[in-house]
Amino acid sequence: MKYVIANWKLYLSDEEVIHQATQLVAGHVASSDELEVVVCPPFTSLDRVAELPGRQFTIGAQDCYWEESGAKTGEVAPHDLKSIGCEYVIIGHSERRALGETDEMVNQKIKAAYAAGLNVIMCIGETLDEKNSGTTDERLNAQLNIGLDQVHIPENNKLLVAYEPVWAIYPSKQEVNPEEAITHATAIREQVRHLCSAAADAQISVLYGGSVDSSNVNAFLAGGVFAGALVGHASTNAQEFGSIINSVMNS
Ligand code: PGA
User: Fold this and answer.
1) Which of 50, 94, 150, 235 could form a disulfide with 6 if both were Cys (CB 3.0 to 4.6 A apart)?
2) CA 77, 81, 84, 88: dihedral to nearest 10 degrees?
3) Is the full-model pTM beyond 0.70?
4) Pairing state of beta strands 228-231 and 204-209?
5) Which residue pairs, CB below 8 angstroms and at least 24 apart, start in 245-250?
6) What is the pLDDT of residues 188-233, one digit of tens each?
7) Are 247 and 217 within 8 A, CB to CB?
8) Would you state the pLDDT for residue 202?
9) HSE (CB half, 13 Å, CA atoms) of 194?
10) Cα(70) to centroid of ligand 1, in Å?
């Protein structure tokens, strides 16, 4: 199974989100047995995107909280995401971590997402400082060891780990060497297999993220270690997103 995930972040206004999602429906962008296409709009438009007539792609949220109710101003409950049609949730994105999200919080969110029946897209990646100080492997291991501590992936759910070098995320102009990223992905996959040993192989995939576009996506998918891509900026252009999907489908 391959995956293309669109993380629309806060790039589009509400009106633009609905327009963009409608264009994807009109272009027959669809999840299938071989390729799952997941679109993650902001919370405010999730339910309307989920209800678009003829929608064949899957819906995901960009974050969630780890409790279902309480005095938690501004938070969103995993069960509510599930009930409005979300099947996936992004957890631990570097842009959330930059605002103070810790590995322990990521761990709690992942457990809560599975309890609500959601699939998890867990983001990990080193900052430029960590890369420059030679601590990338250490950082990735800590993110996995703490983030996945005591995590049981339910039989019907998936764990997609997105390796996103923080220094490569748009608008960074820094280029990632695909071979280096693939080496990290191999180690990540092994570590996740070890930490979630009860899960079946098909439940776990590693994706690449960081300025992915139609011109570079194939280089990351070469060799079959990365099972797809988490795409931010380039996914907000329907034509470019379609080209990325085609490249992944034919990779
Ligand atoms: P980008 O974002 O494709 O815009 O670099 C990827 C991400 O942050 O998930």
Assistant:
1) 235
2) -170
3) yes
4) parallel
5) 245/4, 245/29, 245/35, 245/37, 246/214, 247/214, 247/217, 247/218, 247/221, 248/2, 248/4, 248/35, 248/217, 248/221, 249/2, 249/34, 249/35
6) 999 999 999 999 999 999 999 999 999 999 999 999 999 999 999 9
7) yes
8) 96
9) 9
10) 32
Q: In ligand 1, which atom is closest to the CA atom of 212?
A: 3
- The C-alpha atoms of residue 112 and residue 104 are separated, in whole angstroms, by 13
Cβ neighbour number for residue 95 with a 10 Å cutoff: 18
Name the residues annotated as catalytic: 93, 164
Mean pLDDT of 127-143: 97
What does the pLDDT look like over 9-41, one tens digit per residue? 999 999 999 999 999 999 999 999 999 999 999
Q: How far is the CA of 168 from the centre of ligand 1 (A)?
A: 8
Average pLDDT over residues 56-75: 98
- Strand (E) or helix (H) holding 181: helix 178-195
Confidence check: pLDDT of 183 > 90: yes
Q: Which atom of ligand 1 is nearest to the CA of 235?
A: 3
CA 167 from centre of chain: 17
pLDDT of residue 208: 98
List the structure tokens of 54: 């003829």
- In ligand 1, which atom is closest to the CA atom of 7? 9
Pocket of ligand 1 (CB under 6 A): 7, 164, 169-170, 209-212, 230-234
Say how many Å lie between the CA of residue 104 and the centre of ligand 1: 23
pLDDT at 173: 83
